[in-house]
Amino acid sequence: MSGTSGAADKVAVVVDGRSLTLTNLAKVLYPEVGFTKAEVLDYYQRISPVLLPHVAGRPMTLKRYPEGVDGQSFFQKHAPAGTPDWVATVDVASRSSRPVASQQNDGTVTHVIMDDLPTLMWAANLASLELHVPMWRVAQRRVSAGSGREVVPGHGEARPDLLVFDLDPGPPATIVECCRVAEALRPVLASAGLEPLAKTSGGKGLQLYAKVSGITAEQASDQAKSFAQELERARPDLVTSRMTKSLRPGKVLIDWSQNNGSKTTIAPYSLRARQRPTVSTPVSWDEVEACASPQDLLFTAHEVPGRVAAAGDLFAALLLRRHCGYSRTVESSTMRPSRVICSNSARSTQPCRRSCSSTSRSGSPAVRPVARK
User: Fold this and answer.
1) DSSP 36
2) Helices marked H in the chain — which ranges?
3) CB 72 within 8 A of CB 132
4) Which of 2, 111, 314, 370 is in Cβ range 3.0-4.6 Å of 12 for a Cys bridge?
5) Does domain 10-157+265-369 bear CATH number 3.40.1350?
6) Which of 239, 248, 252, 164 is nearest to 204 (CA)?
7) pTM for this one?
8) What CATH number belongs to 162-259?
9) Residue 17 Cα distances to 10, 119, 329, 341, 373, angstroms
């Protein structure tokens, strides 16, 4: 199988019926380990069955690294110029919206909605290593593709389906101390009827999530702040709920402010722009309790698909039934190398020629190269 382009660094593919041209596939985006754009695309396709349900309907903010993790980066909130007309978007009212090239500033931000594999592959091809989402979703009827528009009310009116606690260690504390704080926070949340689950940040911290409903983002922030302050009073030696720098050394900040409707948090299974391609990875409570070294909860793009194949999505309990459509492919299609790029060739610019595949919801290969005419 081969692409239609004669250029060595371009491959035309069809992703679930959508045409894309993948570019600069041999470009190294993680120089320390030689991890290429091809491997970024390969990872995101392989992990898509479990990643997509968690970001579906959430206004996406992409963090792009066109020159790799050692180069300049930028947050892409507005859907960029040239976005394909099949990419779903939503216009969110925002008082802080700034004008951007080729778009009229009417007090809204046009966010990408990443509900499908083609959109994920399109974003990854833009070197969007990190995917950031809020704790709330947009109703499906308000998501549009093409020219249709409906402005969603501002962040202050958002109705979250998740509550998040971002546990951030102040040196010399590490994720080990974050785990001890998570263990202490768990029964506090349970006493309020919440069932928290944990994931790594993909960096130095840990995050706890719990399902909520029927509250505004402001109420969610207030609740999270109350829980954080309760634990701070109980464990002042280990916990702070305030961002004051002088309070941070050796303690774990419980950052409750991520529940603000205008803020975003790294998505489950997203890559992180570190020296290695680490992943924000759901972990079990057994793993949290057993953590004795930062290396115990450090997972990379090479490891995470295997974890999912073995244990499933450890964040699945956070999904509402209507968001679980993508998850069903995990049981019938294990995490296998994709047909976009050969996963065993870090600098390959050609589609994989081996008998590997990635199955779409229809049962046919999700991504295939375009046949040469």
Assistant:
1) E
2) 37-55, 117-125, 175-190, 217-234, 285-290, 304-311, 328-332
3) no
4) 370
5) no
6) 252
7) 0.85
8) 3.30.70.3300
9) 19, 12, 18, 18, 18
